[in-house]
Amino acid sequence: MRRLLPLLLLCAAPAFAEPPALGGDLATLLDHARSRNPDYAAMRHEAAAAAERIAPAGALPDPRLRTELRDITRMGEQNPSLLPARVGSTRYLLMQDVPWLGKRDLKREIAELDARAAEGRAGGTWAELAAQIKTAYAQYQYIHRNAALTRELLDLSTRLEKVAQARYAGGLAAQQDAIRAQIEQTGLRAELLALDNDTQQARARLNTLLARPAAAPLEAPTHQRPLPAALDAAALEARVRALNPQILADEARLRAAEKGRELAYKNRYPDFTLGVSPIQYQGSVKEWELMVELNLPLQQGTRRAQERESEAMLSAARARLDATANQALGELAGQLAAFDAARRTEALIATGLQAQADLSFKSALAAYETGKVDFATLLDAQRQIRIARQGRIKAQFEAQMRLAEIERIVGEDL
Fold first, then answer.
1. At 150, is the secondary structure helix, strand, or coil?
2. What is the DSSP letter of 350?
3. Does residue 219 lie in a domain region?
4. Model-level pTM?
């Protein structure tokens, strides 16, 4: 039994060590990227670092201690000494710098807003990364579905070749019909080779976003992400203003600029240094002194320049926020229009063109078998099926891409 236990553990180890498969659905890819992507990790660490600056920003500076040995020769009666008990007197001065009232609170609030802006930038990085992953996954799925359709059409062309050969054997059709069917199959096989190359490129793109080796395996997509039936433009605009990470970051920078302006105007008032000083004579303390020191804000030109700088920075932050909001809302309007167009195109093909193409092919096949139409008409009907189905797949892919961009602009999944 003791000999069998290590063998059983060795056989079971790969099952425990096997990582979860990726590629089957979008959610697992996003979860993997959230924890592994280095760009997003860097932004999260920067946001964490910014949050740690809040407490130091509002804290008092460290106190200072000064020691003065006075009359180290005792009026020339002894050799110089550095021992407090053997000099004339020793003065200890403990000093604490104290900013003007309100400055510490403003500095802490500015640090808090900077941390909030850093969180917004991290959120924007994730929204951008998630949109890229969604788009790359939609393209990966688009190629996979196109390949499946091409293989289906290849099987159909093989069946048409058999029909043409049977009619040729019976003297009802020319040999050219079977040859044309073979040419059609060769073209479809060439397309499959091109789609295989596209699949490898899409896999490499996805793996790069997931911080994995480019050749790492990915499962075939199992299901398509559902699309919303309709999107309310007014509701989405409100959500963009409230949730867009870039807008949130610029709003935090605007408020930080407002606090910076307040701090610049408070620099008109002096900062203080408070101190207490016991004086030691030989072995005992016999005197106490109190000290207050303040800086004199006489450099008015410097302070006026700092105040004008803070006003300019506030105006720049306000303009940047307006520009970000306008750009986000403009992009949202364009993506909504493209999403609606893709959805209507997909619906038109699904309810009209695809059914018509299927019916046309069945009619052409029946007519060819009875000799009423030639093989070229049958191939043309087959191509119409292909065009309709590829058009529907492309419209769904376009809608998925537009949805990913809309979610990037909004800042959350819909």
1. helix
2. I
3. yes
4. 0.79
